[in-house]
Amino acid sequence: MTKLEKKKIRPSWKETFVFSIFFMMIATLIKCNYHYYVEKNIPENTSIPNLPKVKITYIGFRPYETEITKSSAETRVYTASLVYPDRTIFKFQNGVYASDLKSVGYRKDVSSDKVKKFVQDYLNEVKESGVLELTYVTSVEKKGEERIFKLKDIGTDYYVLGIHTPAFQTPKHFGSSVIQLFSSVFSVLSFGLIPSYASLQAGTKIKIYDKNLNQLTSMKYDHGYSVLGAIWASSIPEECSRMRCNFLKQVSSPPKFVYQEHGPQFESDIVSFIQTQFPFRK
Description:
The model has no long low-confidence stretch (mean pLDDT 83). The protein has helices spanning 13-29, 112-126, 131-134, 174-189, 257-260, 263-275, and strands spanning 4-9, 33-38, 56-60, 64-71, 75-82, 96-97, 138-143, 146-151, 158-165, 196-200, 203-210, 215-222, 225-230. The longest helix is centred in the N-terminal third of the chain and has 17 residues, at 13-29. Helix content is 24%, strand content 29%. Strand 11 and strand 12 form a beta hairpin. The chain is globular. It contains six helices and 13 strands. By secondary structure, the protein is an alpha+beta fold. The strands form four sheets. It has a five-stranded mixed beta sheet, with helices on one face. Strands 1-5-4 form a three-stranded antiparallel beta sheet, with no helix packed on it.
């Protein structure tokens, strides 16, 4: 599979018509606000050390967006793709994104096989929408039937790769699915007075590589979030008023703001790890 895809069985036209009328009525009557509860695992006043002599290059940290890419009488296919130029973490205190750097050539001392593995590892996670991201640090040259993978020389000491999961909005567990289903039904029947509720997955994988693309470590974060929707709920964030962040959509991707709060935690852990490396240039 070259894309992040999810198939859904499409109902018959009669079922579609009935549901369309039903939800049009509900959408007219219900103007729900959505309150997102996102956990922050690091205090706001946490100090992140400066590493002025260490060059860190960030790759990834992009949200997904879901769209219908195929539709037939029986099924619909939804595809999740990385969103360009959006980043979930707008800026890090130490280092810059690869897209903001210019190369001065290619690293001849890093083998094609090593670059190829780096490329494949990333694309195995994010699929083909990650190709553009990789062009900021790598290049592929075709010689006959052979492909030569090259690492661009951007003068960095460390590469930090960030991948958010899941690509599709997913309940934390089966119990969460049941609660979401029943709370949504009661919310509709009460015209939004009874709140709908969902407990959803969110995670981040971070991999740190040295300048020669040797993977040094990997970190995993679980920062699931929950959503409450009702006509009386306060909108957090403000953009989620009047169903503009409707988590009840059949298939969608987690919104980028559920990851934004974790930027300081990511960087604190990244910097702490780099400080343990020897020799470390202060």
